[in-house]
Amino acid sequence: MSSESMSLEEARSVLWLRNNRRPLGELLDEGYLDESRLAWAAEKAYDPKLKQAAGVLLEWVRQNPSATLRPSSPPSHPEPLPTIEARITMEQARATLWPFRLFKGQRMGDLVDTQQLSLKDLVYAIENAWDERVRQAAIALMAIRLNQILKESAPPAGPLKVVSGGRSYSESRQFLWTAIQGMFLGAVSTLCVLLVIQFIWTLISHPSGPDLQKLMSPAGIIALLIILTLTAGARWLVNRLFNLAWKKLDEQVANYRKGQEGEEQVIEILRQNLDGNWTLFRNVILPSRYKADIDGILVGPAGVWALEIKTWTGEYRNIGEHWEYLSGKRWKMLRSSPSRQAQDNAVRLANFFKADGIRQWVTPVVIWANRESPLLVKNPMVAVWTFDRLPDELGNIWQGQTMQESDRVKILEKLTMLCQRTDEEDN
Questions:
Q1: Per-residue pLDDT, 102
Q2: What is the pLDDT of residues 262-299, one digit of tens each?
Q3: How far is CA 14 from the centre of its chain?
């Protein structure tokens, strides 16, 4: 179906992804949908109707950059606003405390009544709040502001299930470098104590002290100056080397700690956008001669995803299979490609399933979890989900392929047993 066959009004009535199930026209008017988000949906949305509608609206926005977002001629028979399903009661929504600056700690219901919170503020909360209750409260209060019918949805399947296979790579390396840092500090402290003991022992062994006549001679004074100079230089050098070594250890610990924090933030986004129909397996080591772990395996009604989570600091770009980083003014190739890592993990995981007669396609994904480090993606070999697009990507995968329930049960049992065995070995 070509984009010309869908009118602008029809495109505006199409619903967005599961993470914000509302008409595109409303989301566009409120500023939730911008040109970049429409371009993303027009290229990557699984739902063909949503993909087409996003293309229509994207073309209209580009042709009318200075026009109002709402078309000037409303339809002759406007359709009733859709019912909004919420996972929270209106009483709970009004009592929820606003978590952001300026009105932090105040009840959201009171802030909406006094118009201190605008629709734009509520949209911001839906997109950025870490607390799922705040997100749901913002959805419910926005529905009331827009005169939409609010309906409590059927009981959900519960929260996302998370199964851990042990420590993550970042956590293990952080523990290792912290231990090295402690041993280094202990060794330096022990050396200092031994030097003090040796100095005290020298004083006790030679109570009479040095011969003053020899010490006050020209040769003695020169020798003393040389000794003092060498001592000061050695002290400066030791102190310098100690500071450099300690700084290097601190950087290593901080880098791996940041990696661990990035992974936890990704897990939190997954919890907020996926329910109990989905299971996340963390830090999975497949039985093989390779000990590299898979950061995450996401299993749900729509299929299986092998997740490679990266929280690197710096400026990077991904073109096809290759990954490069900016060093000064030059781009340098990374030895290890995250895309290739994710692809290899997906193949290994599919073969792991196939050993038990389960033929299931595994989709590789790289999650770029560091919002502060820019990433340029062009024609990627493997899908790259950036942190700011993660809720949309998760809403999009619901529209993908459907896995047979019998295969899903077998996969869940197989991965759960593997994680339990690995976790017991670690402990």
A1: 82
A2: 788 888 889 888 888 899 999 898 887 666 689 999 99
A3: 29
Please write the tens of the pLDDT for every residue from 5-54: 788 888 898 888 877 778 888 888 878 888 888 999 998 888 889 999 99
Q: Which residue has the tokens 């949908």?
A: 33
Q: Which two tokens stand for residue 75?
A: 């339809």
Dihedral of alpha carbons 374, 320, 298, 310, sign: negative
**66-70 long-range contacts, CB within 8 A, separation 24+:** 69/28, 69/29, 70/25, 70/29
For the chain, the structural domain boundaries read 3-152, 161-167+262-426, 169-256
Q: What HEC string does the chain produce? A: CCHHHCCHHHHHHCECCHHHCCEHHHHHHHCCCCHHHHHHHHHHCCCHHHHHHHHHHHHHHHHCCCCCCCCCCCCCCCCCCCCEEECCCHHHHHHCECCCCCCCCCEHHHHHHCCCCCHHHHHHHHHHCCCHHHHHHHHHHHHHHCCCCEEECCCCCCECEEEECCCCHHHHHHHHHHHHHHHHHHHHHHHHHHHHHHHHHHHHHCCCCCCHHHHHCHHHHHHHHHHHHHHHHHHHHHHHHHHHHHHHHHHHHHHHHHHHHHHHHHHHHHHHHCECCCEEEEEECCCCCCCCCEEEEEEECCEEEEEEEECCCCCEEEECCEEEEEECCEEEECCCCHHHHHHHHHHHHHHHHHCCCCCCCEEEEEEECCCCCCEEEECCCCEEEEHHHHHHHHHHHCCCCCCCHHHHHHHHHHHHHHHHHHHHHHC
